[in-house]
Amino acid sequence: MTRIYVPIDSAALALGADAVAQAIASEALKRGLDVQLVRNGSRGLFYLEPLVEVETPDGRIGYSNVDVEDVVSLFDAGFHEGSAHEKNVGIVDEIPYLKNQQRLTFARIGITDPLSIDDYVALGGLHGLRNVLDMNGDAVCAALLDSGLRGRGGAAFPAGIKWKTVRGALADQKYIVCNADEGDSGTFSDRLVMESDPYMLIEGMIIAGVAVGATKGYIYVRSEYPHSIATLNRAIDKARDAGWLGASVLGTSHEFELYVAKGAGAYVCGEETALLESLEGKRGIVRAKPPVPALTGLYGKPTVINNVITLATVPIIFAKGAAFYRDFGMGRSRGTLPFQIAGNVKQGGLVELAFGVTLRELIYTYGDGTASGRPARAVQVGGPLGTYLPESQWDIPLDYEEYAKVGAVVGHGGLVVHDDTSNLAELAQYAMHFCALESCGKCTPCRIGSTRGEEVIAKIREGDTSVKQITLLRELCDTMVSGSLCAMGGMTPFPVMSALDHFPEDFGLPRTPAQKAA
Amino acid sequence: MTHPQLSAAASAEIVRRHAVQGATLMTILHAIQDEVGYVPETAIAPLAQTLSLSRAEVHGVLTYYHHFRSAPPARVTVQLCRAEACRSMGTEALKDHIEGHTGCRFDSGHAEETELESVFCLGQCALSPAMTINGELHARVTPAKFDRLYAAAQTKVAEVTA
């Protein structure tokens, strides 16, 4: 019997993986071959999708970018025995893109059927939770702090402090909320976890619940991710049947129940307090802080609210120890970050590495340059609210503090590459336009400033490059940064200002002598 | 094809069915839209009554979120990602092509035959540009690929309604 893997992750589905799987099954039947088809998750090597893998004595051999039309020729060549074919990319684990990564959180991604509990446990799952069940909650929070894990959603707040605060709060009900409203363009690591290794997130949330004394958890997933929602719902049902969830977590006295909540297409709900409002069924309007959600969160109760990657990283920390995780990284940025190489790149995908790697390495060593073959010109790091970095900044180590020094943000680790045909003034105008579309409306600088910003940039692009217009734009950005409650209004100026500072020629302005030198 | 608004009685019945214990307004709105394809105006009053909210509050939530529709969807709905990663891969040129090919405009309100909607990120940023067509996700979309998918979607809808 031959085992053939065809991914079921939405990246593969978006390129026709379902039809490929059907074609393989029917062709095998026609030829009388004994083939077992497994729908695995994605390895995160999206540029190879649909990546079909065949199990051989030497390891799993990959066939990349498989189309329905390739299936007959693959069988003719004997691909079910791992033989040569133009689509053969060799042993998948040996592909440098994958092999050279430091996959901690994503160690299991894409290897097996995402919904198989047996596979999850066989590949190291549940160790973390079992260890935590033998620990005191204070010790769990201390170990998390010791691991150096900071919020991976972008804010980089130490997760251990958040957990400790919730644990210390007195309340009749506490909650664990997972922020899976991954709306930033250039990011897909949350989605990959939910679709390709959902039990890891579930385990992380149970650990959080046990540690802080919360008995209910919610995963708030954006409505644009229907595949994630479906996979999570099925995984939660199976986890419940397996005794992980419910009145007695793995037979202990701990209680934990988990639910999926669906967003409805509001970008600002990725902000934690807007998310809580939305989870309560209301308009996703940002709340003023303090009080922080750790004390007054969902329905006014103490709430741990963490991003998917933060919670998904918790199991390995408790399986292998805080020191193991902390030993990766640099400075105060400990551990690894799943970088997401996106936009105009040849080899887009997920690259998990310790902090400290540079953009140049990610774009060229992993991304292999632009998809268009033209020179790369600007990279936006950290989503739509992150800055555009010119080539002179591509050698700065990716570390929260090093990036902060140049006014940039690492954020969620998403990189969007733009080639030399890009117009940064147009992208700056788009940033303001997006803010105007998605502002929740609570803060005036964000609600109105974004529309005015779009207008001012439009005027500049039409040729009014007077000092007055530029000053107006800078002062408007300053007002938005200082006068908005959350990152929507407070950080939309980041891409705008970085575009203006580093690419003035796109606005019709001369480069300064310093810029010319760079 | 016309889509008459649901009657008040039919809406009330749907609300009653979905307003289970512990369900929030958002959850119920999703359930209604998943079943009917949109949230009928006639559902607002029974929702407000069931959840002890004002009709204004229900209307507020319904219109705050881009996902909820107040009118039935078109026969073919195209959602094209217009965010940064897709922009870097020519989604704006693709948008022009789609408008030319379909004769429709993006975000121009409701149409019966084809509706074009801008969305911002479908999570396929390494495989840009991305879009959905009647909910089905597609990545690395080119003008030729769009034309093929659009024709297929139209045929499929015609078969279903025939």
TrEMBL record, chain A:
Domain (NADH-ubiquinone oxidoreductase 51kDa subunit iron-sulphur binding): residue spans on this chain: 425-470
SUPFAM superfamilies per UniProt: Nqo1 FMN-binding domain-like, Nqo1 middle domain-like, Nqo1C-terminal domain-like, Thioredoxin-like
Bilayer-crossing regions: none
Source organism, top-level taxon: Bacteria
Cofactor(s) needed: [4Fe-4S] cluster; FMN
Molecular function via GO: 4 iron, 4 sulfur cluster binding; FMN binding; metal ion binding; NADH dehydrogenase (ubiquinone) activity
Family under the similarity heading: Belongs to the complex I 51 kDa subunit family.
Protein name, entry field: Formate dehydrogenase
Taxon lineage: Bacteria, Pseudomonadati, Pseudomonadota, Betaproteobacteria, Burkholderiales
